[in-house]
UniProtKB/TrEMBL annotation:
GO molecular function, one term: hydrolase activity
Taxonomic lineage of the native organism: Bacteria, Bacillati, Bacillota, Bacilli, Bacillales
Active-site residues (renumbered): H115, C173
Gene3D superfamilies, per database record: Sortase (2.40.260.10)
Protein name: Class D sortase
Pfam families listed in its UniProt record: Sortase
Keyword terms: Hydrolase
Domain of life: Bacteria
Length: 205
């Protein structure tokens, strides 16, 4: 009887631990997702190559490090730090790059999220044709907004691969004025229209 009780306690403990790890591992905009319909969800970063067949980035950025700056001129969003990772500690200091998506400038879907009451507050006023400027060690990239939409908080279709097309998704909670955990997500779709590549991946300029 004692052995059975001990085993039960161990099983419950392990289950609770795994649940906690899984919950903490989810990006903030997909807490405890139930299901999704994406057919080609990005499982790992797809690193595109330049015309020279060299990688844009010499290495994969470490979690929590700054990988670039984001600017949206018309909205007066200026030089927001882009942090590798999309957990609460990352989003407290900048916009978070979803680490299973492409890095800025690469030929796939780059996903960046931010808080609606912090760095992405002005996204409520974004328009089609607005430019989004991103500067990283690989170069300077201009994305142009093509559309916006609102999805359920558990919807993962925005992280589908767009290869070989370089695209950008900005994500924040919605409604913007909602008090408490928001039930939906506001998505900005943009495509790369101009790129100035650095000769080699180096530090931010």
């Amino acid at each position: 009887m004692f052995k059975l009780a001990t085993r039960a306690i161990i099983v419950v403990g392990i289950s609770a631990f795994l649940y906690g790890v899984t919950k903490q591992s989810l990006p903030y905009w997909w807490k405890a997702p139930s299901s999704f319909s994406a057919s080609k969800v990005i499982e790992k970063p797809v690193h595109a190559k330049e015309k020279t067949k060299q990688r844009l980035y010499s290495s994969i950025p470490e979690e929590g490090t700054e990988i670039g700056k984001l600017t949206i001129p018309r909205l007066d969003i200026q030089n927001v730090p882009i942090i590798q990772g999309s957990y609460e500690n990352d989003l407290a200091i900048g916009a978070g790059h979803y680490d299973r998506s492409a890095l800025p400038g690469e030929a796939d879907n780059c996903v960046i999220g931010g808080h609606r009451d912090q760095f992405f507050r002005a996204l409520k006023d974004i328009r089609v044709q607005d430019d989004i400027l991103i500067k990283t060690s690989a170069g300077r990239f201009t994305y142009r907004v093509t559309k916006t939409t609102v999805v359920d908080k558990n919807d993962r279709t925005i992280i589908v691969s767009t290869a070989p097309h370089p695209e950008l998704r900005l994500v924040t909670c919605y409604p913007f004025t909602f008090i408490g955990p928001a039930p939906k997500r506001f998505i900005v779709f943009a495509e790369l229209v101009h790129a100035e590549y650095h000769a080699k991946g180096g530090g931010l300029e």
